[in-house]
Amino acid sequence: EEDVYKIAFRCLGSIGTFEYVVMPFGLKNVVATYQRAMNAIFHDMIGRNLE
Fold first, then answer.
1. Quick check: 38 pLDDT over 80?
2. d(CA 45, CA 51)
3. 13, 16, 33, 37: which is deepest, by most CB within 10 A?
4. CA–CA separation, 17 vs 10, rounded Å?
5. Which InterPro entries match (predicted)?
6. Do the Cβ atoms of 9 and 3 come closer than 8 Å?
């Protein structure tokens, strides 16, 4: 429970702050899941605006 604050993130603009409450497989795969999500979200910018 002391690490709960580490799994929140804030989006720019008026979208707000998001915090994971539960992940179906726990936090052991969160790094890979996060990377896949970021790749999916920013796929148009990778190589052009992002490295």
1. yes
2. 9
3. 33
4. 4
5. DNA/RNA_pol_sf (IPR043502), Rev_trsase/Diguanyl_cyclase (IPR043128), RNA-dir_DNA_polymerase (IPR053134)
6. no
